[in-house]
Specification:
The complex is a heterodimer of chains A (about 325) and B (about 280).
Chain A lengths: L24 H14 L1 H21 L17 H8 L1 H32 L4 H15 L2 H11 L6 H8 L14 H26 L3 H9 L4 H29 L5 H4 L11 H10 L4 H26 L4
Chain B lengths: L1 H7 L4 H27 L4 H6 L10 H8 L2 H34 L5 H9 L10 H10 L6 H25 L3 H9 L4 H12 L1 H17 L2 H6 L8 H11 L4 H31 L6
Classes of the chains: A mainly alpha (about 325), B mainly alpha (about 280).
């Protein structure tokens, strides 16, 4: 099995080189085999199913095309104009903005508060952590259906509260005024546990001696929290904000079972708008234009955010 | 000492506030879940007057009907096939690529790695229409692979990153010694790297599985035949058919989220590990 030792001296002055392996004949062959066997599957799949479709979306967005045959009806940037002229698109964009706002203003503070309470490895704390994390594990579809029951004007929790006051219950998901609010509550329910877990993991890996030092120096609990713990958490908070925004921009599965983006487009997100207008009606050019706009927003955000806020990581 | 202290002041307002706050959040999380579970035991009439209390008469029949229906098992079977395909392919393809990036120096290595990790930024929805056309042109529309292959492609970026970081921690001297002894890179990968990497493989595998198991958009676009539907699609169809018979729908939801919850309890260590290493959702 072992190769003759004679091949080792052949590498000559390899000891002084940066990478001894690079100078060895047989191992270069080995590396070559690995390169041509191990890398192509990943690169091929990624290029074929992720990168190319995004490029093609840009291409298709120049056509008026229903997806059958070859795209021939080139209309330039008209699809983008049509999208931007649609009121429902701006509603969807506004809704994504609302989702981001609620994520940042309600979800993350709630997650942080809970993490600070539950970071210790106490029995009750571990059980509560698991409970709060449970909604995140459930599929968006299941979550959406559960809440369409909760919100149901005839059978749901909301209805029974209204009945208790002797009033006729509202159909929250069926009214343009309340549908989006109802969706936002579900979003908080579903995702706060994810951020809580991120914060708990960060808290558990903090250097405890810094906190102890602050306490010994006479800082109160609140002072320690404000001036030591929270600043130490900044990298995680920045990451959490990043996930919250990227996730909010892509929200779709949760909306479908709740409202399908309705009524009257009042609860569409950009992706459900894309689905309702591009995919279910196979308006490939129009849908692709929406996809490209969403892509541009996501990528611009990601790069700007990384550059401004996550430079050190 | 500290025990004595805490028993001396049982009415610390901060502790009370904390307990109240935690209880409120726990109720907020639990009520919808319990209402779903219990609702499946009620009759439709009872659900109307008592949506959230215990059922006065436990109707096991709702659950039994679903458990004895072929439809329920078919949905689970489809989900299991698609998720298993996705996980297996992701683990094979990603671990091979991650191994190359971790241990083989070659020109363009870091460029290719950044190319792959760009995938973390791409929302799947952006590409879903062209992806549909591509999958159609490949003849994979309405097949398990038509769903699984794009899912593998979209999970690669994160999987390769996580695996590579772990593989890099396997001592370089080990690889060097093995190569001197005439072991090939491929044998090293198969007999040293993979066995040593079980924890991270389990983490990547679990996260990929959960994502695939819960996925909705890709199967929705790629599958046409009900018989191939995974459970998130199937449950939407079911809900459409039984529109307001909530007692049946709730029982159905409970039985479809049960596997998820069991998986979570079994694999929560791996799920949390993968998530804190960087999941992109929320």
């Amino acid at each position: 099995m072992a190769r003759p030792v004679a091949s080792v001296p052949a590498m000559g002055g390899a000891k002084t080189s940066f990478s001894p392996l690079a100078l060895r004949g047989p191992s270069w062959d080995g590396r070559f085999t690995v390169l041509i066997l191990f890398l192509p599957p990943a690169l091929l799949l990624f290029t074929l199913f992720v990168v190319l479709p995004i490029g093609e979306a840009a291409w298709y967005s120049g056509f008026n095309w229903n997806g059958f045959g070859k795209p021939t009806n080139w209309i330039g940037f008209d699809n983008y104009r049509f999208v931007l002229e649609t009121r429902a698109f701006w509603l969807a964009l506004r809704n994504n903005g609302l989702i981001i706002a609620v994520s940042l203003a309600v979800q993350l503070p709630l997650a942080l508060a809970l993490a600070l309470m539950l970071a210790e490895r106490l029995r009750g704390a571990v059980a509560l952590r698991m409970l709060f994390f449970m909604p995140y594990i459930l599929a968006e579809i299941a979550t959406g259906l559960i809440f369409s029951f909760v919100y149901d004007g005839d059978y749901g929790l909301v209805a029974s509260i209204w009945h208790a006051f002797g009033a006729e219950p509202p159909h929250l998901l069926a009214s343009t005024d309340t549908a989006m609010l109802a969706v936002l509550i579900v979003i908080v329910w579903k995702y706060f546990g994810f951020h809580m877990m991120l914060f708990i993991a960060a808290l558990q890996s903090l250097d405890k001696s810094l906190i102890e030092a602050a306490r010994i120096d006479g800082a109160t609990r609140t002072q320690t929290l404000r001036h030591v713990v929270i600043p130490l958490l900044y990298p995680t908070i920045r990451l959490s904000v990043f996930f919250a925004i990227v996730g909010s921009l892509q929200l779709f599965d949760l909306v479908m079972p709740l409202t399908r983006g309705g009524p009257a487009d009042s609860s569409n997100t950009m992706v459900s708008f894309l689905y309702n207008n591009g995919i279910s009606r196979m308006r490939v050019g129009y849908g692709s234009a929406i996809g490209v706009i969403l892509f541009a927003i996501c990528v611009t955000f990601a790069f700007t955010y990384k550059r401004w806020f996550m430079r050190d990581e | 000492m500290s025990n004595a202290e805490s028993t001396r002041q049982p009415f610390d307002p901060a502790v009370l506030f904390k307990a109240l706050f935690l209880a409120l959040v726990a109720i907020f999380v639990l009520v919808p879940l319990l209402a779903t579970l219990l609702g499946g035991f009620k009759s439709l009439g009872e659900l109307r007057v008592n949506p959230f209390g215990l059922p006065s008469h436990w109707k096991w029949q709702n659950y039994a009907d679903i458990l004895f229906s072929a439809r329920y098992w078919q949905l689970l079977r489809n989900s299991l096939i698609i998720s298993t395909l996705t996980v297996t392919l992701t683990l094979i393809v990603a671990s091979m690529a991650a191994f190359t990036f971790a241990h083989v120096r070659f020109f363009g290595s870091s460029m290719l790695l950044s190319y792959l990790t760009l995938g973390l930024l791409f929302p799947a929805a952006t590409a879903v229409l062209p992806l549909f056309i591509k999958v159609r042109d490949l003849g994979l529309l309405d097949t398990y692979f038509g769903v699984a292959l794009p899912q593998v492609a979209f999970s690669l970026a994160m999987s390769v990153l996580l695996l590579r970081r772990f593989f890099k921690d396997i001592p370089y001297e080990l690889l060097e010694a093995a190569l001197v002894d005439g072991c090939s890179y491929i044998k090293f990968f198969r007999y040293v790297t993979l066995p040593l990497s079980r924890p991270i493989l389990a983490t990547v595998g679990t996260i990929t599985f959960v994502n695939s198991w819960n996925a909705y958009l890709l199967p929705l676009v790629m599958l046409d035949t009900d018989a191939l539907y995974p459970w998130p699609l199937g449950i939407m169809v079911y809900q459409g058919e039984y529109s307001s018979e909530w007692h049946l729908i709730l029982a159905f939801i409970t039985l479809t989220i049960l596997p998820t919850i069991i998986l979570f309890l079994l694999a929560q260590k791996h799920i949390v590990a993968g998530l804190t290493a960087g999941a992109v959702k929320g």
